[in-house]
Amino acid sequence: MQQAHSQRIIGATTGEATRQRRLLPTPGGVPVQRLRGALAPSALLAFVVLLAFPVSALSLWKGMQTDSPLAYMGLIPLLAFLTAVAHAWRKPTYVWRDTVTELVVATPFLLAALGLMYAGTRLGSIYFWYNRSDLLALALFGIGAAIVLFGVGAVTRSWFAVLYLILLWPGPYQEHLSTLIIHITDATVVALDAWLRGIDWSGAVAAGDAVYRVTGPGGVEQYVGVDSPCAGAAGMFGFLIVAIPALYLTTGRRARKLAWLALGLALLWALNVGRIFVLLWVASSQGVESELFWWTHASLGILLFTLAVSLMLYLGYRFGFRFERSNEIATAPSMLRIRRQGATPLLVLATLALALGLGALNRDMIDAVGLSARLADGTTIRPFAAALPAYQGVEPRYIDEYAWASQFFGRNSTYQRFAYSDPDGGVIWVDTVVTDERERLDLFNLQGCYNFHGYEMSAVSTVDVGYGIVAQQIQFVMPDSGARWIALSWTWPVNQGGREVHERVTLLQHVAAEDVDATVTRQDDALSAIERLFGIGNGRVAVGPEAEEVLAAGNAIIRGQLENAEASQ
Predict the structure, then answer these.
(1) Rounded CA gap, 158 and 247, in Å?
(2) How far apart are alpha carbons 276 and 160 in whole angstroms?
(3) 351 CB contacts (<8 Å, ≥6 apart)?
(4) 33 falls within a domain
(5) Is residue 261 in a domain?
(6) Quick check: is 379 in a domain?
(7) What is the count of structural domains for the chain?
(8) What does the pLDDT average to over 453-477?
(9) pLDDT for 428-439, tens place per residue?
(10) Disulfide engineering: 321 pairs with which of 31, 252, 354, 445, CB 3.0-4.6 Å?
(11) Model confidence, pTM
(12) Do 396 and 279 touch, CB atoms closer than 8 A?
């Protein structure tokens, strides 16, 4: 019966094959509606992933609304799932289900996700967030949950979608990506400078270090910065995210596919250079505080990206790329006994329970790696006025406010610099960024910023600054002068105009010439390469003598702020 039924399907006429191509034969000859049957487990898969990784999923969604280099990474989980669906639709195969096999294969993925999140939140260093090991845990959990809900065969036949999903984790290519972004930014600035010189426009002139001085309405001078987020990397990487599964699913000559890929990258880069020029023109005619400037900065890039990707998909069709589907439906080998078609309820319930535990760990992740602050007893710090207290009897001296930084930290953000000067001539600089968009402080984190500018980071660690607050300590060397600096940074909630926002405080101190050869407290010496890559090593290291003063200043600032907050209650 099985063999005869299979022959009827494979040997059917074209019209009959078209009518039956969505039906799979079963041992009893009863057809199964594949697409309709996949709808419920697909919705359940999305639910359990969001339940297990709410903070990670929110960061991906928020990241797509910013102009960061990896802004479009949030598309990877969706495109990976759609790639698997398209591949199954293109080449229908028989999927068999077996509870024991699914349990054996899914368990390592699910436990690896749990172990990674537990180690990251309990022993995690700032490498955990910098390399986004939480996204690796999300991918592993998603693979394990897909095995439970769809079966081993459905996942293994979608091997390309599984490998593509792992790209969600930037850890292995983070450093190489930063180097590439520097080159893209340099090329963008060179092209923009050449454009401005070619049209001889005095409305915007280079002010050094990828910053342009724009003469706005009324002759007011304003500054617009061109940094890695808006230098073209976001659109180019976003195009790669869409192009990789598109090239896999379509037929066509390899040379044409490579040419199409290169053309798309060049198009996205050129359009972004034009977008920056439009930004400068809008800043000159309307001002950087105008609604048009912020719409151009926030939305024009997404609009151009959508148009460019749509155009490239059309050109792919003109290049001869086609999505072809087989008319044959493979049948199950005779030695396989099909025990069931759906997921085992017990495995589904166990996956849901694991998702709840992962969700709790995921919500604690940011506090664990020093990107927000809680007191030692676990309670969140009550918001206070964002004003620096005196340190060693010296009031902070206001230096400047950098309006261009609002492009990165949000329209309502402020970036100010202060300085504490002691009688011996030493200076501790304090940078404060206050924003109502907390996720931007996470996306544009300090380590990523220093890495982009090419600073040689000799020590990266998390340290206890006091009162249970965890801070990042970064010791770096300037590439041009060779000068060594120490940075100490933490993020906490503050009160601004009766509403709670977030402030990142960064203390900077130059290491004196006589101390340049002093022993540097290196987290790298205490962590293996694997621990650094996954961010699961204990990053709480002792602070060396060269960082004692900046640590004491940080402790005094925190104590002063907390005391002022208590006095105002």
Answers:
(1) 15
(2) 36
(3) 48, 110, 144, 145, 148, 149
(4) yes
(5) yes
(6) no
(7) 3
(8) 76
(9) 899 989 888 877
(10) 252
(11) 0.75
(12) no
Listed range (48-57, 62-71, 252-261) with the worst mean pLDDT:
62-71
Q: Which residues pair with 464 in a beta bridge?
A: 470
* 398 and 375 Cβ atoms separated by less than 8 Å: no
Higher pLDDT, 101 or 33: 101
Q: Name the token pair of 562.
A: 């907390």
Instruction: Count CB neighbours of 216 within 10 A.
Output: 20
Distance of CA 563 to the CA centre of its chain: 36
**132 & 21 share domain:** yes
Residue type, 522: R
The boundaries of the domain holding residue 456 are: 397-568
Between 24 and 324, name the one with better pLDDT. 324
| 410 and 559 within one domain | yes
pLDDT tens, position by position, 242-271: 999 999 999 888 999 999 999 999 999 998
Same domain assignment for residues 509 and 540: yes
Choose between 496 and 107: higher pLDDT. 107
What DSSP assignment string belongs to 100-125?
HHHHHHHHHHHHHHHHHHHHHHHH--
Whether residue 508 lies inside any domain: the answer is: yes
Confirm if 523 and 457 have CB atoms less than 8 A apart: no
CA 97 to chain centre: 35
Contact call for residues 364 and 372 (beta carbons, < 8 A): no
